[in-house]
Write a structure and sequence with these properties.
One of its GO terms (biological process) is L-arabinose catabolic process to D-xylulose 5-phosphate. This protein is α/β, with parallel strands linked by helices. The chain has 14 helices and 19 strands. The longest helix has 21 residues. The chain is elongated.
């Protein structure tokens, strides 16, 4: 299990007896926080008293592959100049927990010994100053550590730390390149690796075609049985479904062999494939593997990161695309894609159907067709502004379809952004938001805000309070 280090700050001034009490308190607090976590443990570290000990524990956290972040708390006063070298060396996300061991003051017995030991209100302000002076991006949680509110905030930090742990060193595959002449899906791949750890590389679609050709009849039959168990098969063209089964098997083998967490394709580069991958990718996305169409590596990587953050929560997280509007009555957007909408949003058991595409010049591909359950969520786009990356996060409602769409052979998601379509769409466009995005009904704007803060990424938020004009 991944873990968070619990680091308690103090100094030598208080003597061994006080430091022993501080250590006992820290162990107890770390154990209680650890019991409240669902995806990580919280591991106590010895109380740090000087610059060398601080540097040592920060280096230890940075080098430990199982450590995804640190919780730092000042039990006493801890002069902040001691922290400079360690904080500069720390390579893991940090949560500054502004708390104290006791929930209430012992009014009848409080004396200066108690004050000297329990002075987090004093020590954490000193520590906070040096973090701000150094420009350390961190989460700050205040309140008694035993409260459910504080424990919930630590769990949210842990979710983000796990996502950043995936992000560092994440490998992203592009089958083909960015769609020709399209601007918003492109980006600086070298800068993406410098900033976020994403190693984005091109792979020839022919390599995948060779792997598809090597899929056995037996393996394809096994995948077909899986499809029959999970979905309604609403087609007689089982060979087209089998073709997608072979694509999925080959894709999963490729992703495993190359340790890929996210990938893209484009219908402009399908040499050796009979169909555009549809059902295959939909089924893969449901497992939290990042994907985006048309070479949009940023959205594919973002999907993988947000899926990691959302693990264990209710709802779904996946790639989606803005498509078309119903501007009558209460304006609503029909969001979809040619094929690749994840079944995590389905309101009922999806159906496998086979229909021609009006683009790409390939055979009619099998795909999942379904409507989506109403829910609240966020739409998140990442764009490259040339000198910086930007995240755009919009509060979004999935609503019931306005009417049946019997001739539309794709997954159908009806969206209504906050505060309404007119303002929400205008603000999104003004911020440079892409037509590709990640929709999540598991995460909220606070999650995206924390991700942006810890990665030092510019963030534009769109919500019920948004008014036009909205800043670029």
């Amino acid at each position: 299990m991944k873990k968070l280090y619990f680091i308690t700050g103090s100094q030598d001034l208080y003597g061994d007896d006080v430091l022993a009490i501080a250590a006992d308190h820290g162990k107890e607090m770390a154990a209680e926080l650890s019991a409240a976590m669902t995806r990580v443990s919280v591991e106590w570290q010895p109380v740090v008293r000087n610059a060398d000990e601080i540097f040592s524990v920060c280096m230890k956290a940075s080098a430990d592959p199982d450590c995804v972040g640190v919780i730092v708390w000042m039990h006493t006063f801890s002069p902040a100049k001691m922290w400079i070298r360690g904080l500069q060396a720390l390579m893991k996300p940090m949560l500054h927990l502004h708390t104290q061991y006791n929930e209430r003051l012992p009014y009848d017995t409080i004396d200066m010994d108690f004050m000297n030991l329990n002075q987090s209100a004093h020590g954490d302000r000193e520590f906070g100053f040096i973090c701000t002076r150094l420009g350390i991006k961190r989460e700050i949680v205040t309140g008694w550590y035993g409260s459910e509110r504080v424990k919930a905030a630590v769990r949210k930090f842990a979710d983000t730390a796990l996502a950043l742990d995936l992000s560092r060193g994440m490998r992203v595959a592009m089958f083909g390149n960015n769609m020709r002449d399209v601007a918003v899906t492109d980006g600086d791949r070298v800068e993406s690796e410098i900033r976020y750890g994403w190693s984005v590389n091109y792979y020839g679609i022919g390599d995948l075609a060779d792997m598809i050709a090597g899929v056995s009849r037996y393996d394809a039959d096994e995948k077909m049985r899986e499809y029959a168990d999970k979905y309604v098969i609403r087609t007689d063209d089982l060979e087209s479904v089998r073709e997608q089964a072979k694509y999925e098997i080959a894709l999963r083998r490729f992703l495993a062999a190359e340790r890929i967490s996210a990938f893209t394709d484009t219908f402009q580069d399908l040499h050796g494939l009979r169909q555009l991958p549809g059902l295959a990718i939909q089924n893969i996305m449901a497992d939290g593997i990042g994907f985006a169409a048309e070479g949009d590596y940023k959205t594919a990587a973002l999907m993988a990161v947000l899926c990691r953050m959302a693990e264990g929560r209710e709802g779904g997280t996946a790639f989606l695309e803005d498509y078309t509007y119903d501007l009558a009555g209460v304006p609503t957007e029909l969001a979809s894609h040619m094929l690749e909408v994840s079944p995590v949003f389905a309101s009922a058991r999806p159906a496998i159907e086979v229909h021609p595409l009006s683009i790409g010049g390939k055979e009619a591909p099998a795909r999942l067709v379904f409507d989506c359950a109403p829910a609240k969520g966020v739409s998140v786009s990442m764009v490259d502004m040339g000198d910086r990356f930007r995240l755009i996060c919009a509060d979004t409602n999935i609503v019931e379809p306005v009417a049946k769409m019997p001739r539309l052979p794709v997954a159908r998601i009806m969206l209504r952004p906050e505060p309404d379509l007119a303002v929400g769409a205008a603000a999104w466009i003004n911020a440079g938001g892409a037509h590709h995005f990640v929709l999540s009904t598991s995460l909220d704007a606070g999650d995206i805000r924390l991700l942006a803060k810890l990665t030092d990424t510019e963030l534009k938020e769109i919500n019920a309070d948004t008014r036009m004009p909205f800043g670029c």
